[in-house]
Design goal:
about 10% strand, about 110 residues, mainly alpha, three-stranded antiparallel beta sheet
Length: about 110
């Protein structure tokens, strides 16, 4: 990733931005895509509803976005915790376990 700075005596903001973009693309290809591949459509909808938040998501907000019942939201919460993609925070809150997963799910 530091190869973007070859031929230069200093690392510029452009070099850093290019390296960060390359790292995120590699993270997507090697971590996110394999981790998400086996999820159901509803699992993905739950994750995308979480991705609308900055940081920690309140389950009540995710439920509201999805129009889901408490029981349905708890089912997907449990599945995604078991998959290692989200983790419980305080009571009624979840966060992503993988760095930048929320941004990835929001798309370009």
């Amino acid at each position: 990733m530091l190869r973007v700075a070859e031929g230069s005596d200093e690392v510029t903001a452009e070099h850093v931005a290019a390296a960060a973009g390359a790292a995120r693309r590699q993270l997507a290809a090697t971590v996110y895509e394999p981790s998400l591949r086996s999820l159901s459509r509803k699992d993905m909808e739950f994750l995308r509803a979480m991705a609308q938040d900055d940081g920690v998501s309140a389950i009540a907000d995710v439920r509201r976005r999805l129009g889901a019942s408490h029981a349905t939201a708890q089912q997907y919460r449990a599945r995604l915790i078991a998959a290692g993609l989200v983790a419980p925070e305080r009571r009624g809150e979840l966060s992503f376990t993988l760095p930048y997963l929320g941004e990835y799910l929001q798309g370009p």
